[in-house]
Amino acid sequence: MSPPGPDQVSLPEDVVVRQATGEDLRAVVEVGQRTWPATYDSIFEEGLVALFLEKRWSKQALIPSIRSGRTLVAELAGRVVGMASYGPHERSMALWKLYVVPEAQGRGVGSRLLREVMSRAGAVGREVHISFLDGNASAHDFARSNGFTVLQREPQGEMPDLIWMSRPVAEALSHEHDGRDEPGHNRDEIR
Ligand SMILES: CC(C)(COP(=O)(O)OP(=O)(O)OC[C@H]1O[C@@H](n2cnc3c(N)ncnc32)[C@H](O)[C@@H]1OP(=O)(O)O)[C@@H](O)C(=O)NCCC(=O)NCCS
Fold first, then answer.
1. Would you say residue 72 lies in a domain?
2. Distance of alpha carbon 100 from alpha carbon 174, whole angstroms
């Protein structure tokens, strides 16, 4: 792995968190394609998992967030093992996606991605919101251990409720980022 550049953040265990570029598109898709089923297979029926993958984890679905500079990747030993995407949401910042491939989970990669998002959040609002489908215990435990508290539960018809949690940005203003919304942003980007 090459040494971190000026826009990269060095982390323990050779983990590097950096902004994704178009060249990361395939790797970002793969993070979702591998992690989403492992996360939601026990909550959704197979057909629904495939539908979500197609809708939320296709190249087309991921390109806008990469283009807007709001997708981060985490590399471990030079390989992309995690991603996060974020953007404005109701005068706050939403962490729309946060995914670490199963074999790299539990090593602090998700927390490092979250820390970088928090550091970019101050320009947008005073809170960061995270949401996940009810039943995703690892997301709940991860969010709780990272200082998030439950904000609300959003019913979604036949699907499990969406659980929203929030955390104040407060101290995380280490560097400014232009977080203004851009045309075309919509909630469909979520997860
Ligand atoms: C949630 C996720 C991003 C966390 O990433 P990670 O790299 O595994 O998390 P970390 O190693 O940084 O762990 C941070 C904390 O969360 C806790 N945690 C992480 N995964 C957990 C799990 N499966 N069960 C219980 N606690 C968990 C850890 O105990 C740790 O707490 P600690 O610092 O007090 O020990 C990752 O597990 C993942 O990709 N899950 C599937 C996708 C998902 O649900 N994403 C969130 C939807 S928005």
1. yes
2. 24
Q: Could you tell which of 96, 115, 138 is best to mutate to test the pocket of ligand 1, judged by most ligand atoms within 8 Å of the CB?
A: 138
Per-residue pLDDT of the chain (191 residues; tens, 9 = 90+): 445 554 554 445 689 999 999 999 999 999 999 999 999 888 888 788 899 899 999 999 999 999 999 999 999 999 999 999 999 888 889 999 999 999 999 999 999 999 999 998 876 668 999 999 999 998 999 999 999 999 999 999 888 899 999 999 874 444 334 333 333 333 433 45
User: Is 191 inside a domain boundary?
Assistant: no
* Nearest-CA residue for atom 19 of ligand 1: 142
Calculate how far, in angstroms, residue 149's C-alpha sits from the geometric centre of ligand 1: 15
Q: Which domain holds residue 117?
A: 15-174
Cα 108 from Cα 63, distance rounded (Å): 26
Q: What angle do CA 155, 65, 39 make, to 5 degrees?
A: 50
